[in-house]
Amino acid sequence: MAPALVWLTALMVVPCALVLALAFFRRGIYGGIQYTFTLENFGLVFDPLYAGIFLKSARIAGTATLIAVVIGYAAAYAISAAPRRLQPVLLFFAVLPFWSNYLIRTYAWIVLLNREGLITQLLRWFGYTGEPPSMLYTEGAVIAGLVYNYLPFVILACYAPLSRLNPELAEASRDLGASAITTFRRVILPLTVPGIAAGAVFVFVLSIGNFVTPALLGGGRFQMIGNLVYDQFLTANDWPFGAALAMVLIAIMLLVLMAQALAADRASGRAAQVSGGADG
Amino acid sequence: MSEPRTLLAIDHVSKSFGRVTAVDGISLDIRENEFFALLGPSGCGKTTLLRMLAGFETPNDGRILLDGRDIARTPPNKRPVNLMFQSYALFPHMSVRANVSYGLEMECLPASEIRSRVDAILATTELVSFADRKPEQLSGGQKQRVALARALVKRPRLLLLDEPLGALDKKLRGAMQLELKRLQHEVGITFVIVTHDQEESLVMADRMAVLKDGRLLQCDTPHAIYEHPADRFVADFIGVMNFVPGKAAADGVLAGNGTRIAGKVPPKLGPGASAVASVRPERIRLFPSVETANRTTGTVEALAYQGLDLQLHVRTPLSPKPFLVRVTADAADRRPVSSGDQVELGWDAADVRIFAE
Known about the structure:
The structure holds two protein chains of two kinds. Chain A contains twelve helices and two strands, in the order H-E-E-H-H-H-H-H-H-H-H-H-H-H. By secondary structure, chain A is mostly helical. Chain A has a domain at about 45-225: MetI-like fold (Orthogonal Bundle). The two termini of chain A are about 35 Å apart. Chain B is α+β, with helices and mostly antiparallel strands. In chain B, about 25% of the residues lie in helices and about 35% in strands. Chain B contains nine helices and 20 strands. In chain B, the strands form four sheets. A six-stranded mixed beta sheet of chain B has the order 6-7-8-3-9-10, with helices on both faces. In chain B, strands 13-12-11-14-20 form a five-stranded antiparallel beta sheet. In chain B, strands 15-19-16-17-18 form a five-stranded antiparallel beta sheet. The interface of A and B includes residues 169, 171, 178 and 187 of A.
């Protein structure tokens, strides 16, 4: 316990406290920091310009989450329905992209989406002669990059409850007269919601603070909060405002994580209450 | 009395998985309102057959006629057949009431009818006070009753039960055997039960089928199967049987030591063919006071009191395995025996069954 605590303090608590402190100071006239207390930086975060970037980030992260959950759940479902001995192999392939670097994976998307990239060439090969579609440097490209990078998390999170599900439950539902779709909606889906929630929170939290993917696939003008924080520290040299933005971002992530933890806790709390009742 | 109507006709049904044949050309008729048991050792194909009746497997060959209509390729949700799963397969996120209502909701019945039918079946299965509980709050026996209620509330033409008592402890199992039979009479639904427990099917079934290696060996009433097993396997599998190996003769079997066991030889067994004579433990008399066609002496190796009767293991020159003899407590009191005693055994030719070895 103690070594972990030292670790956590040195690598998490102290840096976060430093950034938090920074957010309450003024920016010096020629960059640098002027050590006088102010709340201006937080005021500026809620300026429509910057609040808009927060909203845009949340929208993009939300869309990426939704798409990743739909694709990831379907993939996890397919894997869990495959023959038992094939499942580890399929899972291995699902997480295979993780073996390469995040940046390289994102660059691969540039190769794909470029005006003269693989997709355009493929279209040409099929006889397409018009203007190459502009896919790179769009919101769609950013969402695609985020979905691609975080999909394995969703697959793993959804696979766990799906593979534990007793296959006789689905058969019982069919036996009682339910169609395959009704069986999915009323039996399989409700029993695997915890996996979906865990995967979704993961994708959302990682996406909303992401700055590499929007920088590479969204182009120079495309900004999410991550890019804004990056700019404040490294380009605009306004560390206090960058710190304030970072703190608000961390607060949003914490809220999402806490909401999920609370929901999971209530679900297991109900289960505990339930088993307690059986004894009585 | 009119001939009982056939509800389900299984007609030359076969099913194989890859190169493994699970069910091999089985034909069976199941009658309206009977309690029918499919019995066999594990891997005999009884569960595959049951899953074909429920619609979870499709036969490679043959027909399954329910009320004269072939349902072999009808999906499970479109057949008037319900299955009670071995694991019970109760929906863990639903209350007992929601579990039982589920099947009726699928029929899109009015809410008031669903309610009254669910209330009625919960009363029949004595689950009213558990209606709002989740499955994990129930004991094994209660779960089993919920699974039964959930299937029965649909009023199926045929209820299939896959090892329904397998998960219960021995004492509860005995009580539930009678309970299931009572319920079957009460609801008037045809039950087909799958079991590997021969005692269970003897107690519960009106008729039963003995399966082995995907084939049907015998289908009859428990009494007929017990008294007249079709072959050596059935004789051994159902109840307890003493076997004397030897060669077929004109009117019996010549044991290894030269003793002739008198009994009726099946016509297909020619003289000199390998054969086995058999007799049930309760048909053997200890120190017979009347003349019996078959007689032997032996040494008591072990005895076990079972309350109502006494079981003796008697070493005889007839067979390598000791004879099992069941004597009533009364008879044992009249002439007590103990381990090591020499005893005389006798049994009638009419109680001997002879099979090909």
